């Protein structure tokens, strides 16, 4: 978030401090003639205890879930030998980038929640410029890996009959090195954007003639540099990545939705064979009758397979739509709000709450990625099990409510008398 830091040459030739309306600033050493940074306390933001506690608990829970899920992803893909190499490489790279995003973002948020002011920086000068570089590079890697997964699935469905889309280990290792190198190169200019500065916070709530000041450390950057950089990254990298991800998954979902109708021809063929066997049964007798029973059994088996295939295609269709919705809902708001901050003054407490909420959405994407990509089958089964349990409980409660209503009791008493 952007704050305005006033830089004053506060000492004159005689060594007197800067004058305020009701006195001079206390707490600033006036032994040397130098320029320092000053900010008023009303320009800084702070949260209430309830806000700090709720945000802290949310971030800690998401951090633990993200770390556990992505570490499980690394172990699962390390043992998975039959998976397509490129798909497997994208999953491993995605887990590493999500781990980096979750750990470094959560540590930053938690230190801000426990500071006197949200703008305080307590992680040191090195982490001031390293954390933005690491988190930006990790987010870029994560977005590119999601596009790679979508591309692998697209090629797997479109070219299922010829295995030209299956690449070897050398190809996917080269792709992973390229993705990480490109992301680090794109994020590297941020090293020169951020720097830790000492700022004197002037307390304007005091009633005495001398204003009190407190030195704090802040991680600051030039707003113009950040604006130009993030606009370029958003327009050249993130928007094309978003469009490619949405297009690949939308086309794939449309393809799977239409493929479920291809099984109708199989059912028609089985019905024709059944009719012909029934015709021959009039001249052959018992033997042909046995054949009809076998054909009926085969027809039912084909119908069951057809229904299962249609269910799988519809399920995968809904999964792909969910992937697109999750990507847009969890990634896009943070980038939009980031650009809005560059062109406006967002320093109120509500603006900081929005900043952290959108950051929490990014943490939520780090939690959901292992569930939606590596452990998709287990996630679907658990969701179906939970939905069925909720339906059964709802129906049981509804039936109990209807049975215990006065009208229902009166009807039962009438029926018993009759």
Give the overall form. Answer: globular
CATH topology of the largest domain: Rhopdopsin 7-helix transmembrane proteins
For the largest beta-sheet, the strand count, sense and barrel status come to: 6 strands, mixed
The rounded distance between the terminal residues' Cα atoms is: 77 Å
CATH superfamily of the largest domain: Rhodopsin 7-helix transmembrane proteins
| Assigned CATH architecture of the largest domain | Up-down Bundle
Instruction: Quickly give the structural class.
Output: alpha/beta
Low-confidence stretches: 1-28, 263-294
Helix content: over 70%
Biggest sheet strand line-up: 1-4-5-6-3-2
Give the rounded overall mean pLDDT: 75
- How many strands? 6
Enumerate how many helices there are, as a single number.
10
Series of H and E elements: EEEEHHHHEEHHHHHH
Q: Rounded to an integer, what's the Rg over CA atoms?
A: 32 Å
- How large a portion of the residues is in β-strands, by DSSP E? 5-15%
Tally the structural domains.
2
CATH class category label of the largest domain: Mainly Alpha
Report on this structure:
By secondary structure, this protein is an alpha/beta fold. The protein has 2 domains: 6-257 and 308-374, Rhopdopsin 7-helix transmembrane proteins, CATH 1.20.1070; 264-300. It is 70% helix and 9% strand. It is built from 10 helices and 6 strands, in the order E-E-E-E-H-H-H-H-E-E-H-H-H-H-H-H. The chain has helices at 49-79, 85-113, 125-158, 169-187, 223-259, 264-284, 286-342, 349-374, 376-403, 406-417; strands spanning 6-9, 19-20, 23-26, 35-40, 194-203, 211-221. Strands 1-4-5-6-3-2 form a 6-stranded mixed sheet. A hairpin with a 7-residue loop joins strand 5 and strand 6 (211-221). Helix 3 (125-158) packs antiparallel against helix 4 (169-187) and helix 5 (223-259) packs antiparallel against helix 7 (286-342). It starts with 5 loop residues before the first strand and ends with a helix.
């Amino acid at each position: 978030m952007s704050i305005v830091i006033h830089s004053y040459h506060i000492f004159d030739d005689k060594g007197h401090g800067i004058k305020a309306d009701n006195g001079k600033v206390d707490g600033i050493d006036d032994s040397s003639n130098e320029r320092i940074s000053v900010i008023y306390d009303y320009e800084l933001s702070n949260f209430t205890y309830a806000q700090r506690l709720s945000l802290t608990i949310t971030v800690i829970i998401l951090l633990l879930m993200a770390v556990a899920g992505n570490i499980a992803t690394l172990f699962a893909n390390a043992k998975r030998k039959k998976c397509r190499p490129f798909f497997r490489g994208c999953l491993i790279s995605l887990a590493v980038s999500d781990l980096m995003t979750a750990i470094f973002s959560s540590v930053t948020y938690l230190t801000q929640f426990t500071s006197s002011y949200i703008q305080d920086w307590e992680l040191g000068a090195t982490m001031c410029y390293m954390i933005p570089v690491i988190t930006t590079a990790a987010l870029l890697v994560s977005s590119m890996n999601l596009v790679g997964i979508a591309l692998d699935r697209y090629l797997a469905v479109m070219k299922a009959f010829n295995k030209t889309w299956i690449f070897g280990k050398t190809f996917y290792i080269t792709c992973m090195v390229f993705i990480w190198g490109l992301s680090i190169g794109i994020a590297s200019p941020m090293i020169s954007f951020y720097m830790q500065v000492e700022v004197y916070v002037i307390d304007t709530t005091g009633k005495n003639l001398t204003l009190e000041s407190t030195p704090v450390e802040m991680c600051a950057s030039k707003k113009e540099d950040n604006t130009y950089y993030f606009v370029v990254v958003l327009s050249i990298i993130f928007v094309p990545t978003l469009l490619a991800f949405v297009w690949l998954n939308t086309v794939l979902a449309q393809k799977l939705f239409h493929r479920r109708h291809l099984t109708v021809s199989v059912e028609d063929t089985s019905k024709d064979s059944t009719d012909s066997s029934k015709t021959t049964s009039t001249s052959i007798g018992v033997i042909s009758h046995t054949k009809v029973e076998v054909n009926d059994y085969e027809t039912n088996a084909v119908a069951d397979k057809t229904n299962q295939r249609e269910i799988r295609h519809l399920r995968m269709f809904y999964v792909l739509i969910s992937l697109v919705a999750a990507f847009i809902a969890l990634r896009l708001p943070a980038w939009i709000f980031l650009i809005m901050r560059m062109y406006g003054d967002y320093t109120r407490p509500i603006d900081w709450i929005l900043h952290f909420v959108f950051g929490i959405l990014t943490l939520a994407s780090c939690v959901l990625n292992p569930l939606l990509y590596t452990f998709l089958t287990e996630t679907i089964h658990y969701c179906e099990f939970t939905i069925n349990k909720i339906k059964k409980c709802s129906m049981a409660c509804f039936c109990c409510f209807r049975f215990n209503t006065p009208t229902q009791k009166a009807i039962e008493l009438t029926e018993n008398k009759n």
